[in-house]
Amino acid sequence: MKFTKYILPLFLFAAACEDLDFPDPNSPSTASATVQSLVTGAEAGMRASLSNYLIGVSSVGREAYHFEPADPRYTGELIHGPLDPGGFVVYSSWNSRYRVVKNSRLLMEKSDDKGVEGFAKTVEAYQLLLALNMQNNNGVKIAPYNGLDSNPATKAEAFTEVAKLLDEASTALDGAGTAFSFKLSSGFSGFDTPSTFKQFNRALRGRVAVYMGEWDVALTALGQSFMDPAASMDKGVYHVFGSGQGDNANGMYENPNASYVRTMAHMSFKTDAEAGDPRYTSKVVERADTTTYDGLKSNLAVSVWSGAYDPIAVVRNEELVLLKAEANIGKGGDGLTEINAVRSAHGLSAVSTGGIDQLLHEKRYSLFMEGHRWVDMRRYSKTGSLPNDRSDRGDKVFDSFPLPEAETKGL
User: Fold this and answer.
1) What domains can be seen in the chain, in order of their start residue?
2) pTM of the model
3) Which of 211, 212, 247, 208 is nearest to 225 (CA)?
């Protein structure tokens, strides 16, 4: 992903002095920012603390452990608790998400272009959804974003806001013409015009509707997205990385054959895998040595990404097909058509029984380390069945991250 050298800092802080009132080239003002710099900044910001988010939700969801000798919080706070509202585990992802929300709001102040509105509101909704995935029952903050003066919205209110933003963005994209006035990165390849970006928007809307249990809304949105059981399961929108100036590497990548690997899959990922399932063998490497750290063990090194600049999925076709299965199950069906389409894409034989348990199995192996396992198990009140390897030490499977301490002062 190539960024211009005038990327706008993602959260604009102004410092003024009567005697030194001149433009700072290293911190451009809102007035000097262009639509392109704000769009580029939003894309860059969406990747900020993404690895912390994925490690956080995969750890509490017992999808993987992060064995970091330099910081015991990954196997202490995330697995045992308490989750510290003043610590970086809680704050880093929250802060990054709301920086992008601020960027999106600045975009809409900067331009009344319908394409800009469609992009900005879609991005804002996506960032709020990630925050809501973590904070869950503790809610999040939504517009008008009055900082410490804002009471957090409830979970239900936040979902309503996310859905509204996505629907407003979709309407704006319908009136945005045939091309955007700005360029997007290669992560949006195939989704970089108003009409194709709307397919991405509808994909997110389908995900949100499933989370809300609105099955018909989900099916309608998925039908307007890029979901296609016959297409590549990897078709989708991605966070992209690079080695250029102002760019970043994929913070989730580790060489699975290195002398020490920090992010290791939970051993149940092996014991629960179906024999011959390439979704297992392609996503972990079974190491000859077993890492033992803080009373936890694994020899399964995560190998979802093969290089330091591999992309990380925002949403893929595979998820959308399985979301359709989930919506059909919610309406009383079995979801088998979509479940077996995904299995067929991986060379697996069809199953004859569908339903939620089978769906959750397919999502677990299809979407491993993409941030869904904990959210999915929680939605069906199944976190109690997640592994708890140190129950004798009082470990817990949490269902919500707390609001950051800094966001609750004075409330």
Assistant:
1) 35-303+313-383 (1.25.40.390)
2) 0.92
3) 208
